[in-house]
């Protein structure tokens, strides 16, 4: 359906047939939050919502249209010093990062259609990067594996767009596998795919509170983690555990200690989660996801009243296996694992309680777990 929308928009706007079509998914993270820039462990899934791009090579400048954001600023792949403003910086940034290993990218005409909920922290920017990576690959014919494209997407985000994110979102969008969670070691980029029992549904609980102040707070958390690792004397917090952190407690200020405690305990929870999920161990899954949320709220301080209200409602709802905030925080969404047969009862219970405590209409979206970014035709 979204592909059809992209094709129709392309024909109407550019008055010509596109040559190729690609798709890149958004992601939802089951556990392992704010661990990726510490070399630690994460467990996202690529979801069955994302970004479709259709396009073709053109002479002259690259031209863009999006169904939700309108026309993008034109750019020239051969002159990436002239950075476009607005959403065109994603395709322009990808043309720039791809040109280093694969040579100059062609100029394109491209149409973008997305069905990702905006501002809810399911990585529309990573999906955009991976979609354009696949588009340029389909049009330019270069060979690259999914991990290499994920790293180039992160480079685009860090060095061109200017957001200092870790590797989780791009890895999830590039390397996702249908019906599997991805246990990613963000230092080695090794992925252990873990099947998600089909009787469990992954539910995105959107608070409809858009994320705010994310960049500055995110960068501040990163520096605090680096300070904690330096005090322990390890390259990254991935190399530490709670005991090592506790041994340095007196040398750390209270906030830095708590930031470090979130990361080392979250890494331990992520590792334990893999076996709890495999065994469909309800108590284990519940405790680990709740532990993650509590730690993000109290030690890492990236939750907000809306995320707390949503998760509090989810913890009490029928069919729940576990729930927590997902993504960077400060707004956005929670993720819940729910007995599939009880999904309806779960959503009917959570949303009214959420509304009562916040006055906001939240939204529940049952997400399928999908494959990573791909060329469709
Ligand atoms: C954002 C970043 C990721 C990761 C999460 C928090 O989504 O893009 O790299 O750090 O926040 O887990």
* Strand line-up of the largest beta sheet: 5-4-6-3-1-13
The top-level CATH class of the largest domain is: Alpha Beta
Mean pLDDT: 97
Radius of gyration: 21 Å
Alpha plus pi helix count: 11
Number of strands: 13
- Topology-level CATH name of the largest domain: Ribosomal Protein S5, domain 2
What is the count of structural domains?
2
- Our estimate of the beta-strand percent is 15-25%
Helical residues, percent: 40-55%
Q: How many angstroms does the end-to-end distance come to?
A: 15 Å
| Gross morphology | globular
Biggest pleated sheet: 6 strands, mixed
Provide an overview of this structure.
The chain is α+β, with helices and mostly antiparallel strands and 377 residues long. The protein has two domains: 2-195 and 371-375, Ribosomal Protein S5, domain 2, CATH 3.30.230.10; 200-367, GHMP kinase, C-terminal domain (Alpha-Beta Plaits, 2-Layer Sandwich), CATH 3.30.70. It is built from eleven helices and 13 strands. It has helices at residues 2-14, 89-102, 124-140, 146-161, 168-175, 214-232, 242-247, 254-278, 282-298, 305-315, 343-358, and strands at residues 20-29, 41-42, 44-57, 62-66, 70-75, 108-114, 180-185, 190-195, 200-206, 320-326, 333-339, 363-367, 374-375. The strands form three sheets. It has a six-stranded mixed β-sheet with strand order 5-4-6-3-1-13, sandwiched between helices. A four-stranded antiparallel β-sheet has the order 10-11-9-12. The longest helix has 25 residues, at 254-278. The two termini are 15 Å apart. The model has no long low-confidence stretch (mean pLDDT 97). Residues 33-34, 36-37, 165-166, 168-169, 327-328 line the site of alpha-D-galactopyranose. Alpha-D-galactopyranose binds next to α5.
């Amino acid at each position: 359906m979204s592909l059809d929308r992209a094709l129709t928009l392309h024909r109407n706007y550019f008055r010509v047939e596109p040559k190729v079509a690609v798709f890149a998914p958004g992601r939802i993270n089951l556990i392992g939050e704010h661990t990726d820039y510490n070399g630690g462990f994460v467990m996202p899934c690529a979801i069955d919502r994302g970004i479709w791009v259709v396009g073709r090579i053109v002479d002259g400048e690259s031209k863009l249209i999006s169904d939700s954001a309108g026309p993008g600023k034109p750019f020239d792949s051969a002159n990436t010093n002239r950075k476009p403003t607005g959403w065109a910086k994603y395709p322009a940034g990808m043309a720039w990062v791809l040109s280093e290993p694969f040579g100059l990218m062609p100029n394109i005409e491209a149409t973008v259609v997305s069905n990702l909920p905006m501002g809810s922290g399911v990585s529309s920017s990573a999906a955009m990067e991976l979609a354009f990576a696949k588009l340029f690959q389909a049009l330019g014919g270069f060979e690259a594996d999914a991990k290499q494209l994920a790293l180039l997407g992160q480079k685009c985000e860090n060095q061109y767009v200017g957001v200092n994110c870790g590797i989780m979102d791009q890895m999830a969008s590039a390397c996702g596998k249908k019906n599997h969670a991805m246990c990613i070691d963000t230092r080695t980029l090794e992925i252990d795919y873990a099947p998600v029992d089909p009787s469990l549904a992954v539910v995105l609980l959107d608070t409809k509170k858009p994320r705010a102040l994310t960049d500055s707070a995110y960068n501040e958390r990163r520096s605090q983690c680096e300070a904690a690792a330096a005090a322990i004397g390890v390259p990254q917090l991935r190399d530490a555990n709670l005991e090592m952190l506790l041994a340095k407690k007196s040398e750390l200020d209270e906030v830095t200690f708590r930031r470090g405690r979130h990361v080392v305990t979250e890494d331990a929870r992520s590792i334990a989660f893999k076996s709890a999920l495999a065994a469909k161990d309800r108590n284990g899954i519940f405790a680990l996801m709740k532990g993650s949320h509590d730690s993000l709220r109290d030690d890492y301080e990236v939750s907000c009243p809306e995320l707390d209200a949503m998760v509090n409602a989810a913890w009490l709802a029928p069919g729940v296996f576990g729930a927590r905030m997902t993504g960077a925080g400060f707004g956005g969404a929670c993720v819940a694992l729910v007995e599939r047969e009880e999904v309806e009862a779960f959503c009917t219970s959570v949303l009214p309680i959420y509304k009562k405590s916040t006055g906001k209409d939240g939204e529940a979206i049952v997400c399928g777990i999908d494959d990573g970014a791909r060329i469709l035709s």
